[in-house]
Description:
- By secondary structure, this protein is an alpha/beta fold.
- It is built from 14 helices and twelve strands.
- It has two domains: 6-252, Type I PLP-dependent aspartate aminotransferase-like (Major domain) (Aspartate Aminotransferase, domain 2, 3-Layer(aba) Sandwich), CATH 3.40.640.10; 255-376, Aspartate Aminotransferase, domain 1.
- Helix 5 links the parallel strand 2 and strand 3.
- Helix 3 (60-73) runs parallel beside helix 10 (242-253) and helix 12 crosses helix 14 (365-376).
- Bound molecules: pyridoxal-5'-phosphate.
- Residues 83-85, 109, 111-112, 152, 156, 181, 183-184, 203, 205-206, 215, 217 line the site of pyridoxal-5'-phosphate (PLP).
Amino acid sequence: MEKFRFDSKAVHFNKKLKSESTSKAQPIYQTSAFKFSNLDELEGYFEGKSPHMYSRVSNPNTDDLGTGVAQLEGAPKGVATSSGISAILAGILAVAEHGDHIVACEDLYGGTYQLLAKELPTFGIEVSFVSFESKDSIRSAIKDNTVLLYSESITNPFLRVENLSTIVALGKEYNIKTMIDNTFATPYLMQPYLDGINIVAHSATKYIGGHSDITAGVIVGDQVLIEKAKKKVMNLGSNLSPFEAWLTCRGLKTLSVRMEKHIQNAQRLASYLSEHEGIKKVYYPEHASEKGNGAIVSILLGEDINPNTFSEKLDWIGVVPTLAGVETTISYPIGTSHRALPKSEQERMGITKSLIRISVGIEDYKDIEEAFQVALS
Length: 377
Ligand SMILES: *Cc1c(COP(=O)(O)O)cnc(C)c1O
């Protein structure tokens, strides 16, 4: 398995318990605990002789998801959690404690911003938000008690591709850990751990699950950090349920084929929209990876297009405050992900009423283009 390439690893990561090895598909271990035939066997669990005792601590399905994503990211270990946000929290708490300071990129996913700005200070962890576009602005925010640099590989909603080598270099220079949310890129496009980032987080709710039917998260990294993060997941009770993990693993197996189609469609839609006179600006990443630039496209509608009418005329393309499902959907940053930001912050970032974020699905491209053509006419 070790020598398998990306697409093969994605299909073959499940680790079966010995007793179930004849079932082709991985069973669902929908159980809160595991049975031992005697006290010695129970003791054996603590000596590492059997893998599972209690599902909040570990379970074959949740372990599968952590392992599967870790393999695709090229990292030694991973842990699955109840959501992307709880994965991010577990990763942060593996590094930072009361009295510590974090430097975070200022254009983060809205929910992550809430976690860092509102919740971490109640743990006694202080966060500075700065532009990550210049090395100097990151540098000037680093203090004696800074323990972590935090950003996203492709940012939301303007889809800036993060300069990971700058973050890795600063982390080494100041001896502080680095963490990247790789949700938009997925390991199919970017593998930040292999670039030297210490912890990589995912909202598996998005492309990894891929079908908009679960909420889940994963973080991967080295053995020591992920063991620590796993303790946090166990003690905070932010473990993922076996069934959700099983569904997410099923999604993971088709990540490559979905991403390929998502990306092809997005690339074509981005170039179609950038030529359209009704559109003022198209945001689509460049040079994210040799496999393409992802499947999220943001657009700024021209002044004479009413965003509400536009959304209504998109017909089968729904307004959905999430992304990365197989269906094409649009979302409205000012109304959802960036709603809670102060008006001044929205203005500074350029989050306006004309900004629409498109999550391009895997339908036939022509149907997607036609829907936009109709809505824009
Ligand atoms: C959705 C998302 C999250 C949060 O994940 P949940 O699964 O909703 O908790 C974090 N980061 C990014 C980039 C996201 O898109």
